[in-house]
Amino acid sequence: MDYKTGVKAVGRVMSVAVVAGICLGIASVYAAPFPKPRPYEGDVVLRPPVPIGRTPVSAPRVAIPYGKPMSLVPAATSPQRLVPKMSTAKTCVLRGWSVEILDPIKGRGGCGIERPVSLRSVVGEGQEIGLTLPVQIECELAQKLDGWLHDVALPAARREFGASITKIRTAAGYACRGRNNKKGAKLSEHGKGNAIDIASFYLSNGREVTVKDGWDGSSAEARFLSGVHKGACSRFTTVLGPNADRYHRDHLHFDQACHGKACTYRVCK
């Protein structure tokens, strides 16, 4: 065999080997079984692709109670901005604070309040001073009471006891009745929300000063009660205490009644 004939023979053998290898590979691919499809068990939620340049917005999620029909599950809603209604309520401005003026009160026999405010407490020296009995009174009377508390009662408590007032025992505010609770008597200022009764004062040192026992009690209590009574006479048109009559032995009565034709006369007893 010459050289050329040998080269051709080797080439034919290699070609046959390559073709045989390819055929064996294809046969092995078709002979291997494909894996059976299995359900997806992962916890990743597939979401549609988000366009480039936009930020995805996650929808609100609503927890679905186990076993509850979907028709009873509240639908997810987007947050909404609540715009408050414009307030039309008037306010009664006091010393550094204010209260809402309620709707007028119309009672029987001339009773009622034109500009009522409801007080459960008052503010003095930056602290809340509670009222044992919530009262409804006229705004103007509340303003007078507020001024008397700041300028008269609180300074008197500090001066006589070295303490502040923490609570006031109120005996009466608005009450549709005659004077001194007498049937057929002239309408009381309480029936107009124009009067307030005070029976005692609670102090920050734990002491209670009552009008009934303190008016003729210790010198400090007597001076304190006399001072708050006298200081009220320049602010209210009517101030009645234990010396006025038997109906006021246990409380101080303040009101804004009109005395005299020009309403300039004051009663202080």
How does this structure look, described?
This protein has 269 residues and is of the alpha+beta class. It has a domain at 91-268. The protein contains 4 helices and 12 strands; from the N terminus they run H-E-E-E-E-E-E-H-E-E-E-H-H-E-E-E. It has helices spanning 3-31, 139-161, 211-214, 219-232, and strands at residues 91-93, 98-100, 105-106, 112-113, 116-124, 127-138, 165-172, 195-203, 208-210, 238-240, 252-255, 267-268. The strands form 3 sheets. Strands 5, 6, 7, 8, 9, 10, 11 and 12 form an 8-stranded mixed sheet that branches. Strand 1 (91-93) and strand 2 (98-100) form a beta hairpin. Helix 2 runs antiparallel to helix 4 (219-232). The radius of gyration is 45 Å and the shape is globular. Residues 1-7 and 23-88 have low confidence and may be disordered.
The computed structural class is alpha+beta
- Assembly type of the shown chains? single chain
Element string (H = helix, E = strand): HEEEEEEHEEEHHEEE
Q: How much strand content do the residues show?
A: 15-25%
Strands, count: 12
Count of alpha/pi helices: 4
